[in-house]
Design a protein that fits this description.
The structure is a homodimer of 229-residue chains.
Chain A: H1 6-24, H2 31-38, H3 42-49, H4 52-80, H5 88-102, H6 108-119, H7 124-127, H8 129-148, H9 154-173, H10 175-182, H11 191-220
Chain A binds a DNA duplex (30 and 30 nucleotides) through residues 1-4, 6, 9, 30-32, 40-44, 46-48, 50-52.
Chain lengths: 229, 229
DNA sequence: ATTTTTATTAGACGTCTGATCAATTTCCTT
DNA sequence: AAGGAAATTGATCAGACGTCTAATAAAAAT
Protein backbone atom coordinates (compact mmCIF):
# COMPACT_ATOMS: atom_id res chain seq x y z
CA UNK A 1 0.00 0.00 0.00
CA UNK A 2 1.22 3.48 -0.68
CA UNK A 3 2.98 5.29 2.11
CA UNK A 4 1.23 8.45 1.10
CA UNK A 5 -1.55 7.64 3.50
CA UNK A 6 1.02 6.90 6.19
CA UNK A 7 -0.51 9.23 8.70
CA UNK A 8 -3.84 7.68 7.99
CA UNK A 9 -2.53 4.26 8.85
CA UNK A 10 -1.07 5.44 12.13
CA UNK A 11 -4.42 6.94 12.96
CA UNK A 12 -6.32 3.88 11.91
CA UNK A 13 -4.29 1.90 14.41
CA UNK A 14 -5.13 4.36 17.18
CA UNK A 15 -8.81 4.26 16.31
CA UNK A 16 -8.93 0.50 16.23
CA UNK A 17 -7.02 0.28 19.50
CA UNK A 18 -9.36 2.78 21.09
CA UNK A 19 -12.39 0.76 20.09
CA UNK A 20 -11.02 -2.52 21.32
CA UNK A 21 -9.34 -1.24 24.47
CA UNK A 22 -12.52 0.49 25.54
CA UNK A 23 -14.45 -2.73 25.18
CA UNK A 24 -12.08 -5.15 26.79
CA UNK A 25 -9.23 -3.28 28.44
CA UNK A 26 -5.57 -3.48 27.66
CA UNK A 27 -5.32 -7.12 28.63
CA UNK A 28 -8.48 -8.17 26.88
CA UNK A 29 -7.20 -7.27 23.44
CA UNK A 30 -4.32 -8.70 21.50
CA UNK A 31 -2.04 -6.79 19.19
CA UNK A 32 -3.19 -9.10 16.42
CA UNK A 33 -6.81 -8.12 16.92
CA UNK A 34 -5.88 -4.48 16.75
CA UNK A 35 -3.89 -5.05 13.59
CA UNK A 36 -6.77 -6.92 12.02
CA UNK A 37 -9.32 -4.26 12.98
CA UNK A 38 -7.06 -1.56 11.55
CA UNK A 39 -6.41 -3.57 8.40
CA UNK A 40 -2.71 -3.42 9.02
CA UNK A 41 0.18 -5.75 9.45
CA UNK A 42 1.00 -6.71 13.04
CA UNK A 43 4.54 -5.39 13.06
CA UNK A 44 3.42 -1.97 11.93
CA UNK A 45 2.02 -1.31 15.37
CA UNK A 46 5.38 -1.88 16.98
CA UNK A 47 6.96 0.25 14.31
CA UNK A 48 4.84 3.25 15.20
CA UNK A 49 4.25 2.79 18.88
CA UNK A 50 6.76 0.30 20.19
CA UNK A 51 5.25 -1.71 22.98
CA UNK A 52 1.61 -2.37 23.77
CA UNK A 53 1.75 -0.13 26.82
CA UNK A 54 3.00 2.74 24.73
CA UNK A 55 0.22 2.25 22.24
CA UNK A 56 -2.22 2.35 25.12
CA UNK A 57 -0.80 5.65 26.31
CA UNK A 58 -0.88 7.05 22.80
CA UNK A 59 -4.58 6.31 22.56
CA UNK A 60 -5.18 8.49 25.59
CA UNK A 61 -2.87 11.25 24.54
CA UNK A 62 -4.67 11.76 21.25
CA UNK A 63 -7.98 12.56 22.91
CA UNK A 64 -7.18 14.03 26.31
CA UNK A 65 -5.46 17.15 25.12
CA UNK A 66 -8.27 18.54 22.95
CA UNK A 67 -10.85 17.91 25.65
CA UNK A 68 -8.68 19.42 28.36
CA UNK A 69 -7.99 22.50 26.27
CA UNK A 70 -11.66 22.99 25.56
CA UNK A 71 -12.52 22.58 29.21
CA UNK A 72 -9.91 25.07 30.33
CA UNK A 73 -10.87 27.55 27.63
CA UNK A 74 -14.51 27.37 28.65
CA UNK A 75 -13.50 27.74 32.27
CA UNK A 76 -11.39 30.82 31.65
CA UNK A 77 -14.13 32.47 29.62
CA UNK A 78 -16.51 31.88 32.50
CA UNK A 79 -14.23 33.14 35.23
CA UNK A 80 -13.43 36.31 33.33
CA UNK A 81 -17.07 37.11 32.72
CA UNK A 82 -18.41 40.10 34.63
CA UNK A 83 -22.13 39.93 34.14
CA UNK A 84 -23.71 37.72 34.94
CA UNK A 85 -20.95 36.73 37.34
CA UNK A 86 -19.73 33.14 37.08
CA UNK A 87 -21.89 30.63 38.90
CA UNK A 88 -21.37 27.04 39.93
CA UNK A 89 -23.55 25.68 37.15
CA UNK A 90 -21.29 27.31 34.58
CA UNK A 91 -18.24 25.65 36.08
CA UNK A 92 -19.83 22.23 36.23
CA UNK A 93 -21.12 22.70 32.70
CA UNK A 94 -17.60 23.40 31.45
CA UNK A 95 -16.46 20.27 33.20
CA UNK A 96 -19.12 17.98 31.79
CA UNK A 97 -19.98 19.33 28.37
CA UNK A 98 -16.78 18.78 26.39
CA UNK A 99 -16.76 15.26 27.63
CA UNK A 100 -20.39 14.36 27.22
CA UNK A 101 -20.55 15.92 23.80
CA UNK A 102 -17.51 13.99 22.73
CA UNK A 103 -19.80 11.02 23.10
CA UNK A 104 -21.80 12.12 20.10
CA UNK A 105 -18.93 12.62 17.71
CA UNK A 106 -16.31 10.28 16.38
CA UNK A 107 -15.74 7.31 18.62
CA UNK A 108 -15.91 9.61 21.59
CA UNK A 109 -18.13 7.30 23.57
CA UNK A 110 -15.46 4.68 23.37
CA UNK A 111 -12.94 7.08 24.78
CA UNK A 112 -15.10 8.05 27.73
CA UNK A 113 -15.46 4.38 28.53
CA UNK A 114 -11.73 4.04 28.28
CA UNK A 115 -11.18 6.78 30.82
CA UNK A 116 -13.71 5.31 33.17
CA UNK A 117 -12.01 1.98 32.92
CA UNK A 118 -8.62 3.48 33.54
CA UNK A 119 -9.76 5.35 36.62
CA UNK A 120 -11.14 2.14 38.05
CA UNK A 121 -7.96 0.21 37.40
CA UNK A 122 -5.74 -0.41 40.37
CA UNK A 123 -2.68 -0.52 38.17
CA UNK A 124 -3.62 2.93 36.94
CA UNK A 125 -1.25 4.61 39.35
CA UNK A 126 1.57 2.59 37.85
CA UNK A 127 0.80 3.83 34.38
CA UNK A 128 0.19 7.34 35.66
CA UNK A 129 -2.03 8.37 32.79
CA UNK A 130 -4.70 9.89 34.99
CA UNK A 131 -2.22 11.65 37.20
CA UNK A 132 -0.24 13.12 34.34
CA UNK A 133 -3.00 14.00 31.94
CA UNK A 134 -6.14 14.59 34.00
CA UNK A 135 -5.18 15.79 37.46
CA UNK A 136 -3.92 19.25 36.42
CA UNK A 137 -7.27 20.07 34.88
CA UNK A 138 -9.07 18.72 37.92
CA UNK A 139 -7.17 21.07 40.23
CA UNK A 140 -8.07 24.05 38.10
CA UNK A 141 -11.74 23.17 38.27
CA UNK A 142 -11.74 22.59 41.99
CA UNK A 143 -10.13 25.99 42.44
CA UNK A 144 -12.82 27.52 40.26
CA UNK A 145 -15.52 25.86 42.33
CA UNK A 146 -14.00 27.31 45.47
CA UNK A 147 -14.02 30.71 43.85
CA UNK A 148 -17.68 30.74 42.83
CA UNK A 149 -18.81 29.23 46.12
CA UNK A 150 -16.80 31.21 48.66
CA UNK A 151 -19.21 30.44 51.49
CA UNK A 152 -18.83 26.69 51.24
CA UNK A 153 -16.02 25.09 53.24
CA UNK A 154 -13.27 23.75 51.02
CA UNK A 155 -13.82 20.21 52.17
CA UNK A 156 -17.41 20.27 50.97
CA UNK A 157 -16.28 21.61 47.62
CA UNK A 158 -13.86 18.74 47.26
CA UNK A 159 -16.42 16.14 48.23
CA UNK A 160 -18.81 17.66 45.76
CA UNK A 161 -16.24 17.50 43.01
CA UNK A 162 -15.54 13.83 43.56
CA UNK A 163 -19.24 13.01 43.73
CA UNK A 164 -19.84 14.89 40.52
CA UNK A 165 -17.05 13.13 38.66
CA UNK A 166 -18.26 9.78 39.96
CA UNK A 167 -21.79 10.41 38.79
CA UNK A 168 -20.56 11.64 35.43
CA UNK A 169 -18.32 8.64 34.90
CA UNK A 170 -20.96 6.09 35.77
CA UNK A 171 -23.43 7.80 33.51
CA UNK A 172 -21.05 7.80 30.60
CA UNK A 173 -19.79 4.30 30.98
CA UNK A 174 -22.76 2.21 31.91
CA UNK A 175 -25.60 3.64 29.89
CA UNK A 176 -26.90 0.11 29.48
CA UNK A 177 -27.66 -0.26 33.14
CA UNK A 178 -29.22 3.16 33.43
CA UNK A 179 -31.58 2.29 30.62
CA UNK A 180 -32.26 -1.13 32.04
CA UNK A 181 -33.21 0.20 35.46
CA UNK A 182 -34.87 3.47 34.54
CA UNK A 183 -36.05 2.98 31.00
CA UNK A 184 -37.86 6.05 29.75
CA UNK A 185 -37.44 7.90 33.04
CA UNK A 186 -33.81 8.66 32.27
CA UNK A 187 -33.41 9.65 28.66
CA UNK A 188 -29.75 9.21 27.80
CA UNK A 189 -30.15 9.70 24.08
CA UNK A 190 -29.72 13.48 24.04
CA UNK A 191 -26.44 14.72 25.44
CA UNK A 192 -27.97 18.07 26.20
CA UNK A 193 -30.53 16.47 28.48
CA UNK A 194 -27.95 14.46 30.32
CA UNK A 195 -25.78 17.49 30.92
CA UNK A 196 -28.74 19.49 32.16
CA UNK A 197 -29.78 16.81 34.58
CA UNK A 198 -26.42 16.20 36.16
CA UNK A 199 -25.27 19.83 36.19
CA UNK A 200 -28.62 20.92 37.56
CA UNK A 201 -28.66 18.33 40.29
CA UNK A 202 -25.20 19.08 41.59
CA UNK A 203 -25.28 22.84 41.29
CA UNK A 204 -28.61 22.93 43.14
CA UNK A 205 -27.12 20.75 45.85
CA UNK A 206 -23.98 22.85 46.21
CA UNK A 207 -25.82 26.15 46.11
CA UNK A 208 -28.25 25.01 48.77
CA UNK A 209 -25.39 23.90 50.98
CA UNK A 210 -23.70 27.26 50.53
CA UNK A 211 -26.92 29.10 51.36
CA UNK A 212 -27.31 27.06 54.51
CA UNK A 213 -23.76 27.84 55.53
CA UNK A 214 -24.36 31.48 54.89
CA UNK A 215 -27.50 31.64 56.98
CA UNK A 216 -25.95 29.51 59.70
CA UNK A 217 -22.97 31.78 60.10
CA UNK A 218 -25.31 34.71 59.77
CA UNK A 219 -27.37 33.35 62.62
CA UNK A 220 -24.33 32.76 64.74
CA UNK A 221 -23.21 36.30 64.19
CA UNK A 222 -25.89 38.71 65.31
CA UNK A 223 -27.43 40.12 62.10
CA UNK A 224 -29.44 37.04 61.16
CA UNK A 225 -31.28 38.22 58.13
CA UNK A 226 -33.22 35.00 58.15
CA UNK A 227 -32.72 31.32 57.70
CA UNK A 228 -33.02 31.06 53.98
CA UNK A 229 -35.03 27.99 53.17
CA UNK B 1 -1.59 -31.74 51.60
CA UNK B 2 -4.49 -33.11 53.54
CA UNK B 3 -7.90 -32.93 52.02
CA UNK B 4 -9.30 -32.14 55.43
CA UNK B 5 -8.94 -28.49 54.63
CA UNK B 6 -10.61 -29.08 51.30
CA UNK B 7 -13.20 -26.39 51.77
CA UNK B 8 -10.45 -24.13 52.90
CA UNK B 9 -8.60 -24.71 49.70
CA UNK B 10 -11.62 -23.91 47.62
CA UNK B 11 -11.96 -20.70 49.58
CA UNK B 12 -8.29 -19.91 49.29
CA UNK B 13 -8.66 -20.06 45.55
CA UNK B 14 -11.59 -17.67 45.66
CA UNK B 15 -9.71 -15.26 47.88
CA UNK B 16 -6.64 -15.32 45.70
CA UNK B 17 -8.73 -14.85 42.58
CA UNK B 18 -10.57 -11.98 44.18
CA UNK B 19 -7.33 -10.20 45.02
CA UNK B 20 -5.82 -10.65 41.61
CA UNK B 21 -8.97 -10.04 39.57
CA UNK B 22 -9.64 -6.82 41.44
CA UNK B 23 -6.17 -5.58 40.63
CA UNK B 24 -5.91 -6.56 37.01
CA UNK B 25 -9.26 -7.76 35.75
CA UNK B 26 -10.15 -11.15 34.40
CA UNK B 27 -7.80 -10.83 31.46
CA UNK B 28 -4.91 -9.42 33.43
CA UNK B 29 -4.52 -12.52 35.57
CA UNK B 30 -3.59 -16.05 34.60
CA UNK B 31 -4.88 -19.21 36.16
CA UNK B 32 -1.31 -20.00 37.10
CA UNK B 33 -0.93 -16.79 39.05
CA UNK B 34 -4.10 -17.55 40.94
CA UNK B 35 -2.92 -21.06 41.70
CA UNK B 36 0.41 -19.76 42.94
CA UNK B 37 -1.18 -17.08 45.11
CA UNK B 38 -3.51 -19.67 46.61
CA UNK B 39 -0.70 -22.17 47.09
CA UNK B 40 -2.52 -24.71 45.04
CA UNK B 41 -1.99 -26.82 42.00
CA UNK B 42 -3.22 -25.34 38.72
CA UNK B 43 -5.58 -28.17 37.88
CA UNK B 44 -7.36 -27.84 41.19
CA UNK B 45 -8.98 -24.62 40.02
CA UNK B 46 -10.56 -26.34 37.08
CA UNK B 47 -11.61 -29.16 39.35
CA UNK B 48 -13.58 -26.84 41.57
CA UNK B 49 -14.74 -24.16 39.20
CA UNK B 50 -14.34 -25.43 35.67
CA UNK B 51 -13.50 -22.57 33.38
CA UNK B 52 -11.95 -19.24 34.17
CA UNK B 53 -15.22 -17.42 33.52
CA UNK B 54 -17.00 -19.63 36.02
CA UNK B 55 -14.35 -18.91 38.62
CA UNK B 56 -14.87 -15.23 37.98
CA UNK B 57 -18.58 -15.57 38.55
CA UNK B 58 -18.01 -17.60 41.69
CA UNK B 59 -15.89 -14.80 43.14
CA UNK B 60 -18.84 -12.45 42.80
CA UNK B 61 -21.40 -14.88 44.07
CA UNK B 62 -19.57 -15.43 47.31
CA UNK B 63 -19.74 -11.77 48.29
CA UNK B 64 -22.81 -10.34 46.64
CA UNK B 65 -25.40 -12.37 48.49
CA UNK B 66 -24.40 -11.44 52.04
CA UNK B 67 -24.18 -7.76 51.17
CA UNK B 68 -27.48 -7.81 49.33
CA UNK B 69 -29.21 -9.57 52.17
CA UNK B 70 -27.87 -7.09 54.69
CA UNK B 71 -28.96 -4.20 52.51
CA UNK B 72 -32.45 -5.56 52.06
CA UNK B 73 -32.80 -6.39 55.74
CA UNK B 74 -31.78 -2.87 56.70
CA UNK B 75 -34.15 -1.49 54.12
CA UNK B 76 -37.09 -3.50 55.36
CA UNK B 77 -36.44 -2.53 58.97
CA UNK B 78 -36.44 1.09 57.88
CA UNK B 79 -39.58 0.94 55.81
CA UNK B 80 -41.53 -0.80 58.57
CA UNK B 81 -40.51 1.74 61.16
CA UNK B 82 -43.33 4.00 62.40
CA UNK B 83 -41.55 6.66 64.37
CA UNK B 84 -39.58 8.39 63.26
CA UNK B 85 -40.97 7.61 59.81
CA UNK B 86 -38.42 6.44 57.24
CA UNK B 87 -36.47 9.22 55.57
CA UNK B 88 -34.31 9.38 52.50
CA UNK B 89 -31.08 9.44 54.51
CA UNK B 90 -32.00 6.11 56.06
CA UNK B 91 -32.53 4.55 52.65
CA UNK B 92 -29.28 5.86 51.26
CA UNK B 93 -27.50 4.77 54.40
CA UNK B 94 -28.77 1.22 53.97
CA UNK B 95 -27.53 1.33 50.41
CA UNK B 96 -24.05 2.55 51.20
CA UNK B 97 -23.20 1.20 54.62
CA UNK B 98 -23.00 -2.56 54.05
CA UNK B 99 -20.79 -1.88 51.11
CA UNK B 100 -18.54 0.75 52.56
CA UNK B 101 -18.08 -1.17 55.76
CA UNK B 102 -17.19 -4.28 53.83
CA UNK B 103 -14.15 -2.27 52.89
CA UNK B 104 -12.84 -2.48 56.43
CA UNK B 105 -13.22 -6.19 56.88
CA UNK B 106 -11.81 -9.15 55.03
CA UNK B 107 -10.65 -8.29 51.56
CA UNK B 108 -13.80 -6.29 51.09
CA UNK B 109 -12.03 -3.40 49.47
CA UNK B 110 -10.86 -5.71 46.76
CA UNK B 111 -14.37 -6.80 46.10
CA UNK B 112 -15.71 -3.28 45.80
CA UNK B 113 -13.00 -2.58 43.26
CA UNK B 114 -14.04 -5.71 41.47
CA UNK B 115 -17.64 -4.55 41.24
CA UNK B 116 -16.60 -1.14 40.03
CA UNK B 117 -14.48 -2.73 37.37
CA UNK B 118 -17.27 -5.01 36.29
CA UNK B 119 -19.77 -2.19 35.99
CA UNK B 120 -17.35 -0.29 33.78
CA UNK B 121 -16.75 -3.26 31.52
CA UNK B 122 -18.54 -3.24 28.23
CA UNK B 123 -18.54 -7.01 28.10
CA UNK B 124 -20.32 -6.96 31.42
CA UNK B 125 -23.70 -7.34 29.77
CA UNK B 126 -22.47 -10.54 28.19
CA UNK B 127 -21.51 -12.00 31.52
CA UNK B 128 -24.69 -10.65 33.12
CA UNK B 129 -23.31 -10.63 36.63
CA UNK B 130 -24.54 -7.13 37.40
CA UNK B 131 -27.91 -7.74 35.88
CA UNK B 132 -28.49 -11.02 37.66
CA UNK B 133 -27.01 -10.27 41.04
CA UNK B 134 -27.27 -6.51 41.56
CA UNK B 135 -30.22 -5.17 39.62
CA UNK B 136 -32.95 -6.75 41.78
CA UNK B 137 -31.61 -4.99 44.86
CA UNK B 138 -31.31 -1.75 42.93
CA UNK B 139 -34.97 -1.84 41.98
CA UNK B 140 -36.02 -2.36 45.56
CA UNK B 141 -34.01 0.65 46.66
CA UNK B 142 -35.31 2.88 43.93
CA UNK B 143 -38.82 1.90 44.93
CA UNK B 144 -38.03 2.77 48.53
CA UNK B 145 -36.68 6.15 47.48
CA UNK B 146 -39.88 6.83 45.62
CA UNK B 147 -41.81 5.92 48.72
CA UNK B 148 -39.98 8.23 51.11
CA UNK B 149 -39.93 11.10 48.63
CA UNK B 150 -43.46 11.05 47.23
CA UNK B 151 -43.29 14.67 46.10
CA UNK B 152 -40.32 14.17 43.82
CA UNK B 153 -41.05 13.10 40.24
CA UNK B 154 -39.94 9.56 39.56
CA UNK B 155 -37.47 10.63 36.95
CA UNK B 156 -35.60 12.78 39.46
CA UNK B 157 -35.51 9.89 41.88
CA UNK B 158 -33.94 7.71 39.23
CA UNK B 159 -31.37 10.29 38.26
CA UNK B 160 -30.52 10.73 41.90
CA UNK B 161 -30.06 7.02 42.35
CA UNK B 162 -27.64 6.74 39.45
CA UNK B 163 -25.70 9.79 40.60
CA UNK B 164 -25.47 8.36 44.07
CA UNK B 165 -24.20 4.99 42.90
CA UNK B 166 -21.69 6.67 40.62
CA UNK B 167 -20.33 8.80 43.41
CA UNK B 168 -20.18 5.83 45.73
CA UNK B 169 -18.37 3.67 43.21
CA UNK B 170 -15.76 6.27 42.37
CA UNK B 171 -15.13 6.90 46.01
CA UNK B 172 -14.64 3.25 46.76
CA UNK B 173 -12.49 2.42 43.82
CA UNK B 174 -10.18 5.32 43.35
CA UNK B 175 -9.29 6.39 46.85
CA UNK B 176 -5.80 7.16 45.59
CA UNK B 177 -6.96 9.94 43.37
CA UNK B 178 -9.25 11.42 45.99
CA UNK B 179 -6.35 11.60 48.39
CA UNK B 180 -4.04 12.94 45.74
CA UNK B 181 -6.37 15.77 44.79
CA UNK B 182 -7.91 16.61 48.14
CA UNK B 183 -5.40 15.39 50.69
CA UNK B 184 -6.58 16.14 54.20
CA UNK B 185 -9.76 17.82 53.00
CA UNK B 186 -11.37 14.46 52.24
CA UNK B 187 -10.59 11.99 54.96
CA UNK B 188 -11.21 8.55 53.53
CA UNK B 189 -9.70 6.64 56.41
CA UNK B 190 -12.84 6.29 58.49
CA UNK B 191 -15.72 4.53 56.78
CA UNK B 192 -18.19 6.25 59.04
CA UNK B 193 -17.04 9.65 57.84
CA UNK B 194 -17.26 8.68 54.20
CA UNK B 195 -20.77 7.35 54.62
CA UNK B 196 -21.86 10.48 56.45
CA UNK B 197 -20.47 12.74 53.77
CA UNK B 198 -22.00 11.00 50.79
CA UNK B 199 -25.31 10.15 52.40
CA UNK B 200 -25.58 13.66 53.77
CA UNK B 201 -24.82 15.30 50.48
CA UNK B 202 -27.31 13.33 48.45
CA UNK B 203 -30.14 13.27 50.96
CA UNK B 204 -29.85 17.04 51.40
CA UNK B 205 -29.96 17.45 47.63
CA UNK B 206 -32.97 15.21 47.19
CA UNK B 207 -34.87 16.66 50.11
CA UNK B 208 -34.29 20.17 48.87
CA UNK B 209 -35.54 19.23 45.43
CA UNK B 210 -38.64 17.67 46.93
CA UNK B 211 -39.30 20.74 49.04
CA UNK B 212 -39.00 22.96 46.00
CA UNK B 213 -41.41 20.74 44.11
CA UNK B 214 -43.81 20.90 46.96
CA UNK B 215 -43.81 24.67 47.22
CA UNK B 216 -43.89 25.02 43.44
CA UNK B 217 -46.89 22.77 42.96
CA UNK B 218 -48.43 24.37 46.01
CA UNK B 219 -48.11 27.66 44.23
CA UNK B 220 -49.41 26.34 40.91
CA UNK B 221 -52.47 24.45 42.09
CA UNK B 222 -53.75 26.27 45.10
CA UNK B 223 -54.36 23.75 47.83
CA UNK B 224 -53.14 20.84 45.81
CA UNK B 225 -51.38 18.61 48.26
CA UNK B 226 -49.63 17.27 45.22
CA UNK B 227 -50.33 15.63 41.93
CA UNK B 228 -48.69 12.45 43.07
CA UNK B 229 -46.81 11.60 39.93
C1' DA C 1 20.06 9.03 -10.87
C1' DT C 2 21.61 7.59 -6.64
C1' DT C 3 21.64 7.48 -1.93
C1' DT C 4 19.14 7.89 2.54
C1' DT C 5 15.18 7.74 5.12
C1' DT C 6 10.79 6.25 6.07
C1' DA C 7 6.91 2.64 5.68
C1' DT C 8 5.55 -1.82 5.37
C1' DT C 9 5.82 -6.77 5.09
C1' DA C 10 6.47 -11.70 6.26
C1' DG C 11 7.99 -14.71 9.40
C1' DA C 12 9.75 -16.71 13.39
C1' DC C 13 11.28 -16.48 18.47
C1' DG C 14 10.52 -18.24 23.06
C1' DT C 15 7.11 -17.89 26.52
C1' DC C 16 2.80 -18.17 28.41
C1' DT C 17 -2.04 -19.20 27.97
C1' DG C 18 -6.51 -22.07 29.49
C1' DA C 19 -7.86 -26.52 29.41
C1' DT C 20 -7.67 -31.53 30.07
C1' DC C 21 -5.75 -36.16 31.13
C1' DA C 22 -4.77 -40.28 33.78
C1' DA C 23 -2.59 -41.31 37.98
C1' DT C 24 -2.31 -40.81 42.81
C1' DT C 25 -3.46 -39.56 47.48
C1' DT C 26 -6.78 -38.53 51.16
C1' DC C 27 -11.25 -38.88 53.15
C1' DC C 28 -15.63 -40.93 54.39
C1' DT C 29 -18.76 -44.76 54.84
C1' DT C 30 -19.59 -49.26 55.95
C1' DA D 1 -10.16 -52.98 57.16
C1' DA D 2 -12.01 -52.47 52.71
C1' DG D 3 -13.94 -49.98 49.12
C1' DG D 4 -15.70 -46.06 46.81
C1' DA D 5 -15.93 -41.20 46.38
C1' DA D 6 -13.72 -36.87 46.62
C1' DA D 7 -9.59 -34.24 46.39
C1' DT D 8 -5.11 -33.36 44.51
C1' DT D 9 -1.20 -34.02 41.64
C1' DG D 10 2.15 -33.69 37.69
C1' DA D 11 2.37 -33.62 32.88
C1' DT D 12 0.93 -32.35 28.45
C1' DC D 13 -1.88 -30.17 24.67
C1' DA D 14 -2.43 -27.04 20.83
C1' DG D 15 -2.66 -22.50 20.27
C1' DA D 16 -2.20 -17.48 21.19
C1' DC D 17 0.67 -14.11 23.03
C1' DG D 18 4.02 -9.74 22.53
C1' DT D 19 8.17 -8.71 20.52
C1' DC D 20 11.92 -8.78 17.40
C1' DT D 21 14.59 -9.16 13.01
C1' DA D 22 15.70 -9.22 8.33
C1' DA D 23 14.01 -8.13 3.92
C1' DT D 24 11.29 -5.34 0.76
C1' DA D 25 8.73 -1.29 -1.06
C1' DA D 26 7.93 3.57 -1.39
C1' DA D 27 9.22 8.46 -0.65
C1' DA D 28 12.31 12.06 0.08
C1' DA D 29 16.66 14.08 -0.23
C1' DT D 30 20.84 14.70 -2.62
Amino acid sequence: MTAHDGERRRDRILTAAERLFSEAGIDGVSMREIAAEAGVQLALISYYFGTKQELYRAVFRRRIEPVSEERLAMLQRILERKNPPPAIEDVLDALARPWVELRDTRGGLLYTRLIAREVSDLRESKRGIVKEMLDPVARRFIAAMEKVLPDLPRSEIHWGYHFFIGALLLLLMSTDRTQRLSGPLCDMSKSQKVIDEIVGFFSRALKTAAAERRSASGRKAKSAKGKRR
